[in-house]
Amino acid sequence: MLRYILKRLLIMVITLWIIVTLTFILMVSIPGSPFNSERGTNEAVQANLEAHYNLDEPYVIQYFLYLKSIVTFDFGPSIKQPSQTVNDMLGRGFPISFELGIITIIVAVISGVTLGIFAALKHNKVIDYMAMGFAVLGISIPNFVLATLLIQQLAVNYELFPVARWLSPAHMILPVTALATGPMAIIARLTRSTMLEVLTQDYIKMARAKGLSPWKIVIKHALKNALMPVVTIMGTLLAGILTGTFVIEKIFAVPGMGKYFVESINQRDYPVIMGTTVFYSAFLIIMLFLVDLAYGILDPRIKLHKKGGE
Amino acid sequence: MDKILEVKDLHVTFSTYGGTVKAVRGVNFYLNKGETLAIVGESGCGKSVTSNAIMRLIPEPPGKISNGSIIFKNKELTTLSEKEMRSIRGVDISMIFQDPMTALNPTLTIGTQLMEGLQQHQQITGDQAKSKAIEMMNLVGIPNPAERLKQYPHQFSGGMRQRIVIAMALICKPELLIADEPTTALDVTIQAQILELFNEIQEVTGVSIILITHDLGVVAKIADRIAVMYAGKIIEVGTKREIFYQTQHPYTKGLLHSVPRLDLQGEKLTPIDGTPPDLFSPPQGCPFTARCPLAMEVCDKVYPVTTERSDSHKVDCWMQDDRAKQLLATSAEK
Ligand SMILES: Nc1ncnc2c1ncn2[C@@H]1O[C@H](COP(=O)(O)OP(=O)(O)OP(=O)(O)O)[C@@H](O)[C@H]1O
Ligand SMILES: [Mg+2]
């Protein structure tokens, strides 16, 4: 087990390094610089500024300076807002984005799995058709369209929820709904189809022959097997939700990391680009690792370690 | 002898898009305490449906026990509620399925799966359940039971898994065990071991067994009585001797001639030509008529009356009629 984790950690570091390097290459190859914006800065001043931020150094040196800033996790101040360090921005934005993301995942998983189970148990009945119709809608409507619809109807027309911002639980309902509906629909459909398959398995019949109650059979015997494919696609869903937060945060004026991420790219604010990219990537990589661990725990046939077995 | 189970005029149908499948059409049999009854017959003749009906495990819909009664220890099972039935499943009647590779849940340990039946039906502590489980593992011949309880199904071979399934079925000490082709998925040497295990277990626990199979070799080894099923009906039933040595029904004869036997060396194997009738609209007469070498006009029109050749030996065939026997005798003389 320990060996497996160490190996995975090493692979994670390598993955992160590749991402960082690619980001650096992309960054230096996009035309423009933080200083030659429309305002037309004096050339001498610009040279001075570039020297200050080491932007006049050869790329190789710049690259190593970036690597150093990542290893020490100190990206320095933002170029555009020099009064703030990148770490300040991450510290302020991340908790909010994290909150949005986590609530979304929890809502999507719980409602998706519940919907899927009910649809499977009521196979070919009204509940099943309704749930699956709903799921198809959920999958086909992009989250930004749903977000605008929700704002227009529930916030503007009926004034049930605040239009935007992130201040109270009531503020969270619309952005979370907009972001969670897609993943929820995917999870519901997947849970339903695997559940239907699992319910025809012999071990379910065996469990019935033992005299177990229907709920015990669903919870203990069927659910764990039916959830395995859901865990498998969790990684993809997480990545989707993560990128979804950029858009949703923008639409609902949620002051999360998405704002800094998008703005920094537009403004060529190199330290902020680097900081947010590294942070997002590291976060996603760690989440994927946790998903894999969860999979190994759910399915005993997948061995994370060499010990045991025949 | 005490009858533990009596099935009378059992009818099971399935409603499908194509029409109603009459899978079991008036099955009658009984089972004495401590004996083994084998139900044999071709694929699709309704063996599994009959056994699932006894457990009330027919999926409803599409299935339905449309008529008949199943009396287990003087209790009518067909009218019990699902909840009452749950207190019988696993406790009084247990079932073993064909494929041990799929009958165990891959994500739960053997121990969990062995003990959950006990914990469902009895008020016992975890430790008691565990020692019970170990006792059962010993009974079915699995070495190192305490260790192996913690393992998962994929860590066991096919034969071992079938032993575990048997232990699971027997852990609440049921009085009736229904085994639906318990050895079909196993290789021959393991088959023999598992059959031997059934014999041992019956000696130790006195459990009555219904053994479903299409392997007459299996039947010869462990059955006391044999019921031969064809197209949803039992067409001949008798003791093992009666079925093997005083075979009456042409279908039973056909079955016996289509498997190799050591005591009949030199005789040619003759498979039964043709296929069983369509169960959507089964013939009103004897369903075997179309494949029967002795078929008469009456066979096609009227289902034969049951002839009791002895207390135990019953046959549904018009050839049992005295007039048919006479005709056959005179035609043989010519
Ligand atoms: N769920 C179902 N829906 C429709 N028809 C069914 C269903 N289950 C069984 N049947 C039908 O009932 C008939 C009897 O099936 P059954 O499984 O009892 O056969 P069997 O004798 O056990 O055969 P085998 O030796 O292949 O296991 C078959 O014709 C089958 O098509
Ligand atoms: Mg069968």
TrEMBL record, chain A:
<dbReference type="InterPro" id="IPR000515">
    <property type="entry name" value="MetI-like"/>
</dbReference>
<dbReference type="GO" id="GO:0055085">
    <property type="term" value="P:transmembrane transport"/>
</dbReference>
<dbReference type="InterPro" id="IPR045621">
    <property type="entry name" value="BPD_transp_1_N"/>
</dbReference>
<dbReference type="Pfam" id="PF00528">
    <property type="entry name" value="BPD_transp_1"/>
</dbReference>
<comment type="similarity">
    <text>Belongs to the binding-protein-dependent transport system permease family.</text>
</comment>
<feature type="transmembrane region" description="Helical">
    <location>
        <begin position="133"/>
        <end position="152"/>
    </location>
</feature>
<dbReference type="InterPro" id="IPR035906">
    <property type="entry name" value="MetI-like_sf"/>
</dbReference>
<feature type="transmembrane region" description="Helical">
    <location>
        <begin position="172"/>
        <end position="191"/>
    </location>
</feature>
<keyword id="KW-0812">Transmembrane</keyword>
<feature type="domain" description="ABC transmembrane type-1">
    <location>
        <begin position="94"/>
        <end position="295"/>
    </location>
</feature>
<dbReference type="GO" id="GO:0005886">
    <property type="term" value="C:plasma membrane"/>
</dbReference>
<dbReference type="Pfam" id="PF19300">
    <property type="entry name" value="BPD_transp_1_N"/>
</dbReference>
<keyword id="KW-0813">Transport</keyword>
<keyword id="KW-0472">Membrane</keyword>
<keyword id="KW-1003">Cell membrane</keyword>
<feature type="transmembrane region" description="Helical">
    <location>
        <begin position="9"/>
        <end position="30"/>
    </location>
</feature>
<feature type="transmembrane region" description="Helical">
    <location>
        <begin position="226"/>
        <end position="248"/>
    </location>
</feature>
<keyword id="KW-1133">Transmembrane helix</keyword>
<feature type="transmembrane region" description="Helical">
    <location>
        <begin position="100"/>
        <end position="121"/>
    </location>
</feature>
<feature type="transmembrane region" description="Helical">
    <location>
        <begin position="278"/>
        <end position="298"/>
    </location>
</feature>
<protein>
    <submittedName>
        <fullName>ABC transporter permease</fullName>
    </submittedName>
</protein>
UniProtKB/TrEMBL annotation, chain B:
<feature type="domain" description="ABC transporter">
    <location>
        <begin position="5"/>
        <end position="256"/>
    </location>
</feature>
<dbReference type="InterPro" id="IPR003593">
    <property type="entry name" value="AAA+_ATPase"/>
</dbReference>
<dbReference type="Pfam" id="PF00005">
    <property type="entry name" value="ABC_tran"/>
</dbReference>
<dbReference type="InterPro" id="IPR050388">
    <property type="entry name" value="ABC_Ni/Peptide_Import"/>
</dbReference>
<dbReference type="GO" id="GO:0005524">
    <property type="term" value="F:ATP binding"/>
</dbReference>
<dbReference type="Pfam" id="PF08352">
    <property type="entry name" value="oligo_HPY"/>
</dbReference>
<keyword id="KW-0067">ATP-binding</keyword>
<dbReference type="InterPro" id="IPR013563">
    <property type="entry name" value="Oligopep_ABC_C"/>
</dbReference>
<dbReference type="InterPro" id="IPR027417">
    <property type="entry name" value="P-loop_NTPase"/>
</dbReference>
<keyword id="KW-0813">Transport</keyword>
<comment type="similarity">
    <text>Belongs to the ABC transporter superfamily.</text>
</comment>
<keyword id="KW-0547">Nucleotide-binding</keyword>
<dbReference type="InterPro" id="IPR017871">
    <property type="entry name" value="ABC_transporter-like_CS"/>
</dbReference>
<dbReference type="GO" id="GO:0016887">
    <property type="term" value="F:ATP hydrolysis activity"/>
</dbReference>
<dbReference type="GO" id="GO:0015833">
    <property type="term" value="P:peptide transport"/>
</dbReference>
<dbReference type="GO" id="GO:0005886">
    <property type="term" value="C:plasma membrane"/>
</dbReference>
<keyword id="KW-1003">Cell membrane</keyword>
<protein>
    <submittedName>
        <fullName>ABC transporter ATP-binding protein</fullName>
    </submittedName>
</protein>
<keyword id="KW-0472">Membrane</keyword>
<dbReference type="InterPro" id="IPR003439">
    <property type="entry name" value="ABC_transporter-like_ATP-bd"/>
</dbReference>
